[in-house]
From TrEMBL:
<dbReference type="InterPro" id="IPR037099">
    <property type="entry name" value="Fum_R/Succ_DH_flav-like_C_sf"/>
</dbReference>
<dbReference type="GO" id="GO:0050660">
    <property type="term" value="F:flavin adenine dinucleotide binding"/>
</dbReference>
<keyword id="KW-0560">Oxidoreductase</keyword>
<dbReference type="InterPro" id="IPR003953">
    <property type="entry name" value="FAD-dep_OxRdtase_2_FAD-bd"/>
</dbReference>
<keyword id="KW-0813">Transport</keyword>
<feature type="domain" description="FAD-dependent oxidoreductase 2 FAD-binding">
    <location>
        <begin position="35"/>
        <end position="461"/>
    </location>
</feature>
<feature type="domain" description="Fumarate reductase/succinate dehydrogenase flavoprotein-like C-terminal">
    <location>
        <begin position="523"/>
        <end position="656"/>
    </location>
</feature>
<keyword id="KW-0472">Membrane</keyword>
<dbReference type="GO" id="GO:0005886">
    <property type="term" value="C:plasma membrane"/>
</dbReference>
<dbReference type="InterPro" id="IPR027477">
    <property type="entry name" value="Succ_DH/fumarate_Rdtase_cat_sf"/>
</dbReference>
<keyword id="KW-0285">Flavoprotein</keyword>
<dbReference type="InterPro" id="IPR036188">
    <property type="entry name" value="FAD/NAD-bd_sf"/>
</dbReference>
<keyword id="KW-1003">Cell membrane</keyword>
<protein>
    <recommendedName>
        <fullName>succinate dehydrogenase</fullName>
        <ecNumber>1.3.5.1</ecNumber>
    </recommendedName>
</protein>
<dbReference type="InterPro" id="IPR011280">
    <property type="entry name" value="Succ_DH/Fum_Rdt_flav_su"/>
</dbReference>
<dbReference type="Pfam" id="PF02910">
    <property type="entry name" value="Succ_DH_flav_C"/>
</dbReference>
<keyword id="KW-0249">Electron transport</keyword>
């Protein structure tokens, strides 16, 4: 049985009691212990900075040329924290409850409550680092709403919150680099975990500039490499984002949990053509003020400004009056798909809905006129003032939309459609963030632990920084306290020889195939299978077909791929090939997991399991567990279940009406 190691005692006391009884490592011993960190986004950078500050010897690896290029930089809308600055009823419990409910009752209570508790510390930490959060006129930090909540708890820095938070973490990381506590390895990719006597003891990494394989030993290894959304090819993720680090850990014995739980973000710029390689996210914060609608008439080809108000269907406000446009992402995404599938979509592709700011511009303009004590203000002046307010809040997002589409969203509604964004599944970890492999940890989006079947907006940044700044510094000591007797580690041992040999053989095999298909073509084919049959909606027939198609694609990949260049050289196509090979294996497991989970919950929507009005229908009596899959061979996985026990929150049919 998987042991989640949830501390005993009342929910609100678990983390405090854990910290009070956890094993400690004295400062002199910390200097003798080495920690390897894979990935330097928010989770990795904050963990490296924190562990370096504590005195551990840290090696941090990223495949980019700088930690500042991590995909965390792309997060736009904000970061949640239960500060209750708006005095609107927020609390640690309310954030905990919203997160459990938003995840459709498929997350652990203990982990989620800890996340809500430390959320308040994150904001203080980031303000101290100089993160330029938006502020009210009087200087207090500003908040806005996000989907799945009825309070304003999201702190933000215009539409570039991820960038500002990453710069804060990066500064803390670079300080430790300068002090010699952290050694940074850029343009390096981890290609294998090295196990010694059942424990993670190091990695094999490839220098992406020279092509050389390198050995690195450590007393613990932290996987902070983000999510696997690029298995769909088209996603909002950076094109380099991949599953390789997590997948190598999985193949070594770490369980992969809930892989089918994929988040489809409702607010993305629609696909424009066959040759597109990436999708662009428009922040969910835009749903805070924007209204989403489609024409009431099927196939209406009129411009948005020619459609009268009474001929518009504000379908989220109609279907979910309590939350309106602020329903969670899974609900908003499926609703948009349903309208488009029914023939009410807009734009040339008819696979889009409108996100309209006209009402918000008028509302803010009137407020501004009142603040300035202006009477007899014309509509044009009110609109102009409203646009200025919207520009201050969302200006860079509006500019980005205009650059991509050529349309001015201040004048015409944006067109949006759901797209793959975040993955709630990941490496199974216990309360201490350790995987099933002793000494191997997973942080941030690389693990499965905090979001259940659907992540609420602005919670990804919260979890990444919580894990790195406030959780792992405590929990890793509980393991490393016993490792001080291990002494200095060496890479000159058989386990490293075997690991390096297997990596080299895999690379040589890829280079020797000399087929006709490009890596990009194979990736695109995989993405189409995944989106069509394991995307926003899944069914038994489609998933069964997808599994066979992916297995066939895997055979074709390993017999007909063509990679130019040399093995011991700068070769991005070879790097990409290894990542796509891992995506193909992951895609098969995702479909197996989706087929096994015969219920609908959060981002996993099985068409056979829905209510009369098209909402997700859970089966708590059969599926209230974490599906943790252990790799036991090619095309073979063993399912181990971690039961989910709810002591405080009582699961109910999720409703936002």
């Amino acid at each position: 049985m998987l042991n989640a190691k949830i501390p005993d005692g009342p929910l609100e006391k678990k983390w405090e009691d854990y910290k009070g009884h956890v094993k400690l490592v004295n400062p002199a011993n910390k200097r003798k212990l080495e920690v390897i960190i894979i990935g330097t986004g928010l989770a990795g950078a904050s963990a490296a900075a924190s562990l370096g500050e504590l005195g551990y010897k840290v090696k941090a690896f990223c495949f980019q040329d700088s930690p500042r290029r991590a995909h965390s930089i792309a997060a736009q809308g904000g970061i949640n924290a239960a500060k209750n600055y708006q005095n609107d009823g927020d609390s640690v419990f309310r954030l905990f409850y919203d997160t459990i409910k938003g995840g459709d009752y498929r997350a652990r209570e203990g982990n989620v409550h800890r996340l809500a508790e430390v959320s308040t510390n994150i904001i203080d930490q980031c303000v101290a680092q100089g993160v330029p959060f938006a502020r009210e006129y009087g200087g207090l930090l500003s908040n806005r709403s996000f989907g799945g909540t009825q309070v304003q708890r999201t702190f933000y820095a215009a539409g570039q919150t991820g960038q500002q938070l990453l710069i804060g973490a990066y500064q803390a990381l670079e300080r430790q680099v300068a002090l010699g506590n952290v050694k940074m390895y850029t343009r390096h990719e981890m290609l294998e975990i090295v196990m010694v006597e059942g424990k993670a003891r190091g990695i094999i990494a490839r220098n992406l500039v020279t092509g050389e394989l390198e050995r690195h030993a450590g007393h613990a290894v932290l996987i902070c490499s983000g999510g696997y959304g690029n298995v769909f090819y088209l996603s909002t993720n950076a094109m380099g984002s991949n599953v390789t680090a997590a997948w190598k850990a999985h193949r070594k014995g770490a369980h992969f949990a809930n892989p089918c739980f994929t988040q489809i973000h409702p607010t993305c710029i629609p696909v424009t053509g066959e040759h597109q390689s990436k999708l662009t996210l428009m922040s969910e914060s835009l749903r805070n003020d924007g209204r989403i609608w489609v024409p009431k008439k099927k196939g209406d080809d009129r411009r948005a400004d020619q459609i009268p108000e009474d001929e518009r269907d504000y379908y989220l406000e109609r279907r979910y009056p309590a939350f309106g446009n602020l329903v969670p992402r899974d609900v908003a995404s499926r609703a948009a798909k349903e309208r488009c599938d029914a023939g009410y979509g807009v734009g040339t592709s008819k696979q889009a809905v409108y996100l309209d700011y006209a009402d918000a511009i008028l509302r803010y303009g009137r407020i501004e006129a009142g603040k300035r004590n202006l009477s007899g203000t014309s509509d044009a002046q009110i609109i102009a003032m409203g646009k200025e307010v919207v520009k201050e809040k969302y200006g860079n997002l509006f500019d980005m939309y205009e650059k991509i589409t050529g349309e001015n969203p201040y004048e015409v509604p944006m067109r949006i459609y759901p797209a793959v964004h975040y993955t709630m599944g990941g490496l199974w970890v216990d309360y201490e963030l350790m995987t099933a492999i002793p000494g191997l940890y997973a942080l941030g989006e690389a693990n499965f632990s905090d979001h259940g079947a659907n992540r609420l907006g602005a919670s990804a940044l919260m979890q990444g920084l919580a894990d790195g700044y406030f959780v792992i510094p405590y929990t890793i000591g509980n393991y490393l306290a016993e490792e001080i007797r291990s002494g200095a580690l060496t890479t000159n041992q058989p386990a490293f020889d075997e690991a390096e040999k297997s990596v080299r053989e895999r690379l040589e095999t890829l280079m020797s195939i000399k087929g006709t298909e490009t890596v990009e073509t194979m990736h695109k084919r995989l993405g189409k299978i995944m989106w069509d049959k394991c995307g926003m909606a899944r069914n038994k027939q489609g998933l069964t077909e997808a599994i066979e198609e992916i297995r066939q694609l895997r055979k074709e990949f390993w017999s007909n791929i063509r990679i130019p260049g040399k093995i011991n050289d700068f070769n991005p196509e070879l790097d990409k090939a290894g990542r796509v090979a891992d995506f193909i294996e992951l895609g098969e497991l995702m479909c197996i997991d989706a087929l096994n989970r015969e219920e609908s919950c959060g981002g996993h929507f099985r068409e056979e399991h829905q209510t009369e009005d098209g909402e997700a229908l859970r089966h708590d009596d059969q599926y209230m567990y974490v599906a943790a899959w252990k790799s036991v061979g090619t095309h073979e996985w063993q399912l181990e279940k971690e039961p989910l026990d709810y002591e405080v929150v009582k699961p109910s049919q999720r409703s936002y009406k």
